[in-house]
Amino acid sequence: MLSYFIKRLLVAIPTLIGISLVCFFLVQLTPGGPVEQTIAQWRLAGTGGETGGGRSAQITEEQRQALIEYYGFDKPIHIRYLRWLGKLVCLDLGESYYYEDTVWALIKRCLPVSITLGFFSFLATYLVCIPLGILKAVRHNTRLDMASSAVIFFLYSIPSFALGIVLIVLFGGGSFWNVFPIEGLVSDNFSSLSFWGKVKDYIYHIVLPLTCYTIGSFASLTMLMKNSLLEQLKQDYITTARAKGLSEKLVVGRHALRNAFLPIANGLGQWIGLFFAGSLLIETIFGLRGIGRLSYDAIINRDYPVVLADIMLVSVLNITGNLLSDFLYVLIDPRIDYA
Question: For the whole model, what pTM was predicted?
């Protein structure tokens, strides 16, 4: 078992190198890079050359070459890649072209939003969907099963951004009730509040975006849990357990449920990546500055260091999540052997 995970970790190294190689070359070859972005800004502002008065500035070849050298594009692309990879190995993600700050500093400022949404979404989803899926499987084809299916699929059909707008109108001081704040994670006077006041303020701010962030995953996880348990309840070993006179509670809880959790464990590890991914639309609607908006702005502004850092961090988290899923498989069913 230990040798398997060691092999997976060793395989992850060339995998990450391959991802970095492909992504670096694709990003670097994308038209409209930082040099073109800076020149466009100079021309728009009329400050890039001798022309003034708000007119479009004329950019000299010397200025263009200076920009190319400043961003390091005067070197061959393979040399740029090796330099970037060397810094990456030392956990140096570089400096943002657009924000003129280190990439680590930008990520640290945006992580609280993404981690908050990801972590609490994970808790809310699994704490609700797993018990609901079990209940639906046990009471399959009953009124409760059909009514809950209708509700969760109706919620699943609503786009998260549309739901966010509806929630703001209803509960954010729109046309109805002013119950929840609709911008930021905390209030302006957050630092002056008591401990429980801070907790209350924090909860008030995350209720609406968290609702939008989690509502779409309810249907898929609930039905996965239900169908997985139903499949186990049809197996021969369940029939044998019932024939022995075991109660339905023991049959479901001790025998069927353990095996039914295997597909659920496969998705648990993937939530690590979601902690970091963020959601552009939800962050935009509720005025949050998370990884989703940071990544989007970096792509629009051709902020290569930030784009590459996001790709590599998400790749590391996905690989870690896959390893965690394998480990959970073994915890749930010790009979599984990866040797």
Answer: 0.78
